[in-house]
Design a protein that fits this description.
Low-confidence stretches: 423-434
Number of domains: 2
Distance between the termini: 59 Å
Strand content: 5-15%
Helix content: 55-70%
Number of helices: 22
Shape: elongated
Order of helices and strands: HHHEHHHHHHHHHEHHHHHHEEHEHEHEH
Radius of gyration: 30 Å
Strand order of the largest sheet: 3-4-5-6-7
Structural class: mainly alpha
């Protein structure tokens, strides 16, 4: 059961002293300072409010650290969810988002219990990079109005209409708002280069807020946009589930769960690389699932492990999950005692923060590197990116993964070889059997050799090889020592091969069938097919068996 033990319990069992606690608390304070403006900005960008982002960071951040499988993971709202959340709220209201978040939590929890944590490594990098870069473009696009101070009644949700509306409203650009936004953006960039250890986001927000308040600049602030923002944590309440709502929101729930799983486990891998530790992927999914269910109970947003905050946590000296718990406690103190200060934060400053978040998410170096890859990888990257920006994130993920899987299977099918004795010119095959023995085979005996995994992408080729022979021989030897894997379609292909050979009066000898293919053939009842089917250990045994059978014919 160790794989389902939270890392918090494991680290406390190892021994926890005052020095470690002090290091964790200081790291938690550092991360809270970074997370504070970020959670507010992500809450607004998602179509909700800044308090929703903070509530998520407190509730989900606490539980992800307390119940997750990573030693230093820090969780909360992230940019990956912005597009999905915005669309769900627009289509189903905020209650719909709470239902989708809770369902996503259940999906993540079940995925962890089912030990699917390792499955995340099978998502192709072009797909991940494509939709991440697409999300970055959408996030940046959503902040243009606040950064420029445009006077617009509403902003279209779709990418192209949104930019058409922006260009139509360029005459309403507010110079003062642009200066505030540029000032905040410049502060963040300069601090990252000259003093990267300082909390650039928080310093930029504080300076912008002070300048706007002191000079009484006519710019939009959090207080003017959200005049009735509540203080403190809301009371937990169960979302109103109905069968119709569950059916409508199931695709969004799967998308949220998919994004949460990917980002959480990628973040945990990054943390492992920085600390030399090893996370428990299945427990991480369990923790993420519980955290998202709890976040929905308190009216929060979807949450996952945040790579930037996790890296900050490690650099600040975090030793155990207590640091992530401390970060949530510090944010809770802010919500309880300093919520009124949020009203002074300029929207342009939060837009500047989200521009930097989008730039970090874009992974432009990885994106440009993938553009130099073969056409198939480049095509998957651009397809996923384009669908994310122009159509829908759910569509982009589905199409991207499907296309990448089909291309992979096409490549795999090219590695599989089905050869008869006339095709083989080598003196010795990979398992050391002498191929020249085929020259001494009796008349009426034919040999086929399959090399590589025999799956549905190539299952029909065995029958095609038999048809190419023209007249079916009396004895067919099927060499399968180099077949490591056989799936259900492969079994069906072999079964059809046997049927066609039998109809022509041939007997089949299977040579060197390995454990997994043999088990699949047994499940397909092929080993019970009667006297015309024979299984032997090696090609030598197959030749001797063929000689005996030919003598009987």
């Amino acid at each position: 059961m160790q794989s389902f033990t939270p890392k918090l319990i494991s680290t406390l069992r190892e021994g926890y002293d005052a020095r470690t606690f002090r290091a964790d608390v200081l790291a938690g304070l550092t991360v809270a300072i970074v997370a504070l403006p970020l959670a507010m900005a992500l809450g607004i960008a998602s179509g909700a409010s800044p308090d929703k982002g903070l509530v998520t960071a407190v509730i989900a951040g606490f539980l992800i650290s307390a119940l997750g499988g990573s030693r230093t993971q820090v969780g909360g709202p992230t940019g990956a969810f912005v597009v999905v959340i915005f669309n769900v709220i627009a289509q189903h209201g905020y209650d719909g988002l709470l239902i989708a978040t809770s369902m996503a939590g259940v999906i993540l929890f079940v995925a962890g219990i089912a030990r699917l944590g390792q499955m995340i490594k099978f998502i192709p990098h072009p797909v991940v990079t494509g939709f991440t870069a697409g999300i970055a473009v959408i996030i940046a696009s959503s902040q243009v109005k606040d950064f420029l101070g445009l006077s617009m009644r509403s902003v279209p949700a779709d990418f192209l209409p949104k930019w058409q509306a922006y260009f139509g409203a360029l005459s309403t650009v507010q110079f003062v708002t642009v200066c505030v936004g540029l000032g905040a953006l410049a502060t963040i960039v300069i601090l990252r280069r000259l003093a990267p250890r300082l909390p650039g986001f928080l310093i930029a927000v504080l300076l912008a807020s002070i300048v706007v308040a002191v000079l009484k600049l006519p710019v939009d602030t959090v207080g003017s946009r959200f005049p009735e923002m509540p203080a403190g944590l809301p009371m937990p309440a169960l979302p109103q589930f109905t069968l119709a709502k569950i059916q409508e929101l199931l695709p969004a729930a799967f998308t949220i769960a998919f994004l949460a799983g990917i980002e959480a486990l990628l973040s945990a891998v990054v943390a492992d690389g920085m600390t030399g530790t090893r996370h428990r992927s299945n427990q991480e999914l369990v923790g993420q699932g519980i955290a998202n269910m709890a976040s929905s109970l308190f009216g929060g947003l979807p949450a996952t492990g945040a790579i930037a905050r996790t890296a900050t946590n490690i650099k600040a000296g975090a030793k155990t999950p207590v640091a992530g718990i401390a970060h949530a406690v510090f944010l809770l103190l802010f919500i309880l005692f300093a919520t009124d200060l949020m009203a002074y934060v300029p929207m342009a400053a939060l837009a500047a923060i989200l521009f930097m978040v989008a730039w970090g998410m874009s992974e432009y170096e990885r994106f440009t590197a993938l553009l130099s890859m073969p056409n198939s990888d480049r095509g998957i990257l651009l397809l996923t990116f384009g669908l994310t920006v122009l159509v829908d994130l759910t569509v982009a993920i589905g199409v991207g993964v499907t296309a990448a899987s089909l291309l992979f299977m096409a490549r795999m099918s090219e590695t599989v070889q089905i050869e008869n004795d006339n095709d083989l010119s080598d003196a010795r095959d990979l398992d050391g059997e002498d191929l020249s023995q085929r020259d001494a085979l009796p008349d009426g005996v034919e040999v086929f050799r399959i090399s590589g995994p025999f799956f549905f992408g190539v299952a029909g080729e065995l029958l095609d090889a038999l048809r190419r022979l023209g007249q079916t021989p009396k004895i067919l030897i099927l060499r399968m020592r180099e077949v490591p894997l056989l799936d259900a379609s492969g079994v069906a292909g072999v079964h059809e091969f046997v049927i066609q050979a039998r109809r022509a009066g041939a007997q089949i000898i299977f040579s060197g069938v390995r454990t997994q293919p043999m088990e699949m053939l047994r499940r397909g009842k092929l080993d019970e097919a009667g006297s015309s089917l024979h299984f032997v250990e090696s090609f030598d045994d197959a030749v001797r068996k063929a000689e005996v059978l030919v003598g009987r014919v």
